[in-house]
Amino acid sequence: MSISDTLKAQKYASIAEIAAAQSKLYADKLESAPDYAAQAAASASLAATSATQAESAALTSVSAANSATASALSAANSAEAAGEAAADAIQNYVDQSVRVSGSEAVNPVPLAATRANSVFLWDGASQPSSKLLSEFATLDGTGKIPVSMIPAIALTEPFVVSSQAAMLALNAQVGDIAKRTDLGYSFCLASAPPSTLSNWVQLTDDVLAQLGLSSGATMVGAVDDSSNPTTVQGALNLKTSIASLAASTGATLIGATNNAGTTSTVQSVLNLKIEKTELAANDGERFIGECPTVAALRALEPSYDKQRITLREYTAGSGKGGGQLRAVLSGSSYTDNGVTIFKTPGGAAWVRVNADIINPLMAGAVGTGLTTDDDTVAIQRIQILSGATVDFLGLTYYTTADLDFSGAAKSVFRNGTLKPSSATLNVARVSNAGHIIDGLNIDGTLATGAIGYSVTITATGAQIRNLRISNTGRSAIACSASESLIYRVTTDSCGLLAVSPFVNTFYIIANEGTIVEECRMLRCYNGVYFRTDLTASKTSRNKLINTLMVGDGQTADAGAQGVSSQNNFGLEVTGCYISGFPDNGIDLQQSDYCDISKNHVINCKDGVFIGDRSCKGHKIFDNHFDSCVRGFRFYCVSPELSASFYDIQFTNNTIVSPKTVGIYVWLPNAVDSGQCIISMNTIRMTGSISGASHAIQINNLFNSSVDENKIVGCPQNGIVFTGASTIINARGNSINNSSRGNTNIYDAVYVDTTTSRIFIRDTVSVGGGKAAVNIAGGAGHTVAGTRWGSMGTGGIINNGSSTTLLDNVAI
């Protein structure tokens, strides 16, 4: 039995209960008004009939559907009890009159014709009335109320189904409801049969169920993030799921703001971050920010004291001059030097760290050596630094103006090359302190009129060392600073512009204690000039040691010399190799007590020259002179100079192949020329005899000695004494093959008529010459201990007066 049938049965049972109640009411009235017993009986009869109909309907429902519910049985039982109550009432009151309260008036029951097929009842005024049975619903043969008797609005039966197929399979009646759990809303059967989908009408009143579905959010209104109307689902569609957020790409769905305040996503911001492993890599620093240029650095105020910052490059595009700096917030005591310190507008300072050694790139140089890259300003920034060590990094720097390394305290400038332009006069001055120039070369290819290093008088103790200077039109080094050192400097083709006095490769001006050591000077005009003005006090303690200088046939100036000394005291020239100068290898003028030793002088005019102006005390020893015009020349022919020469020692030297005279002492106008020693020298005149003459020629020398010299192969006389020479001790000299090429013409020793008191002792002479000793004149001479062999005319020729001859024997 359907729920609809059960409800109908319940309805009939209710009607039966009402009828029973009415019967009881009528019985009560009969009891109070026995005069209406007949009416009560009639009413009871009607009640009984209704009860019987109710019972019949209930029974019919039971028999029609064996599954009647407890509600239908209860209704039947109620109807039966009502019938029994009505029978009892009729039975109890049939013999009594129907009564009402004493004063009430009750109308007669309706007429029999009216009561036919009707039910007795009381109307709204509590008066008897009747209602036709046709006005009550009756049951059909199946125990159901016919559809024609059911009002338009009736109870319906709900069904719960999960699909359309289940709904169409329902045993439903018109008005039944099918709740669709798959859709979240219901359908009502509008007409039979229920198996036809179009007979079902959708209901929209199950809102909560619909909202509970996965599509429920499409039914709820909302406003999106831009305040535009939408649905909850539409708004949700704009949101991201947890799964999407949890995915590897989830960070692309979350908004963020980057460091610049620009709208972005979390992923975009993360993309700007660096993994720890990347930062820890060997090249991890590439991910750390840098300040692009010095200009940007100067505009950047630090956030805290000792803040660190990395400078990428000095100027944009150079790629050079960067480094680490630290901040000094209170930078009042700092000065912006454009190299290691940079000031900000707020008064802070950025200071380079680990800048014990700086380089020109830190000052903005690029070091390409190209004429398009002028590094002058950059190097001028570093040249004034005090107490700095500047490493030029082995690079070449093109400059267009004079430099001046002028810091107040000693600085070191090293390891690079300066390439000056033609506009440069001094490639670099050195001033104010004893700065060290170490390995900083000069390429003067473009600066044909420049001086290389100009070391000023204020740079006491300066050092120029371990470098190369080439092609400067003027001096490679001009130095007027005392206690200076020029060490292991190589020069090539410097001073060739022939502008005096800068024709000298090294021009050492009025120095005290300057040392030039282990240098190499190639293709020189002049070599080294130690010069002090003739009117000034002599400078002292200068040295030229173990240095090579080669004139290499530079003949633009016939007066070009290897080493020149003017007005020096105690100059030492030792261990040098001097070759190819058109004038003297070593020239000493108005200088005193110089030591010239262990030098090798080749193919110069004079190996060593002393003369013109007064000088004294020189020691010239252990030198080798080869192919010079004269090995040693001691000379004065200018009476107006009133020059004096004495205490000169020329000892233990070797002279090979002199072009004229081996040792030439020619002092006709000297006011004082004595106490000189010329001894233990070897003179080998084995070269061409054209122009060659005497091995040793002495003129106007006083109180001196010419001892133990060895002479081989002189074309003319071995030793000649002329002029006013007097008191000369010539002892132990050995002369072999004098008058070479001129047999029997020249002598081993010749003394002319202007001399006096020449003491010639222990001379050995063999071969070639006319006489071992020829005294042409003069007075007071002594010839003793002479030994000779193979001489043309014999051993001794004496035409002098008061000559002493002792123990002279041929061998």
Structure commentary:
The protein is of the alpha/beta class. Helices cover 16% and strands 33% of the residues. The protein has twelve helices and 66 strands. The strands form nine sheets. The chain has a 31-stranded parallel β-sheet that branches. It has a 16-stranded parallel β-sheet with strand order 18-20-22-24-26-29-33-37-40-44-48-52-55-58-61-64. A four-stranded mixed β-sheet has the order 3-4-5-6. The model is unreliable at 33-37 and 60-72 (pLDDT under 50).
Query: What is the 3D shape?
Result: rod-shaped
Please outline the major beta sheet. Answer: 31 strands, parallel
Average pLDDT for all residues:
86
Which spans have pLDDT < 50 for at least 5 consecutive residues? Answer: 33-37, 60-72
How far apart lie the N and C ends?
179 Å
Per DSSP E runs of 2 or more residues, the count of β-strands stands at 66
List keywords for this structure.
811 residues, alpha/beta, 31-stranded parallel β-sheet, 16-stranded parallel β-sheet, 12 helices, 16% helix, rod-shaped
Gist of the model:
The protein is an alpha/beta fold. The protein contains twelve helices and 66 strands.
Question: How are the secondary structure elements laid out?
Answer:
Layout: H1 3-32, H2 37-64, H3 70-93, H4 112-115, E1 118-122, E2 128-132, E3 158-161, H5 164-168, E4 177-180, E5 185-189, E6 200-203, H6 207-212, E7 221-223, E8 229-231, H7 232-237, H8 242-246, E9 255-257, E10 263-265, H9 266-271, H10 276-279, H11 294-298, E11 308-313, E12 321-328, E13 341-343, E14 349-352, E15 357-358, H12 376-383, E16 389-391, E17 396-399, E18 403-405, E19 412-420, E20 426-430, E21 436-443, E22 451-455, E23 463-470, E24 477-479, E25 485-492, E26 504-509, E27 515-517, E28 520-522, E29 526-531, E30 539-540, E31 543-545, E32 548-550, E33 563-566, E34 568-569, E35 572-574, E36 577-579, E37 586-589, E38 595-597, E39 600-602, E40 606-611, E41 615-616, E42 619-621, E43 624-626, E44 630-635, E45 644-646, E46 649-651, E47 654-656, E48 661-666, E49 672-674, E50 677-679, E51 682-684, E52 696-699, E53 702-707, E54 710-712, E55 719-722, E56 726-731, E57 734-736, E58 749-751, E59 756-761, E60 764-766, E61 771-775, E62 782-784, E63 787-789, E64 794-798, E65 804-806, E66 809-810
Parallel strand pairs: 3-4, 15-16, 16-19, 17-19, 18-20, 19-21, 20-22, 21-23, 22-24, 23-25, 24-26, 25-27, 25-28, 26-29, 27-31, 28-32, 29-33, 30-34, 31-35, 32-36, 33-37, 35-38, 36-39, 37-40, 38-42, 39-43, 40-44, 41-45, 42-46, 43-47, 44-48, 45-49, 46-50, 47-51, 48-52, 50-53, 51-54, 52-55, 53-56, 54-57, ...
Antiparallel strand pairs: 1-2, 4-5, 5-6, 7-8, 9-10, 11-12, 12-14, 13-14
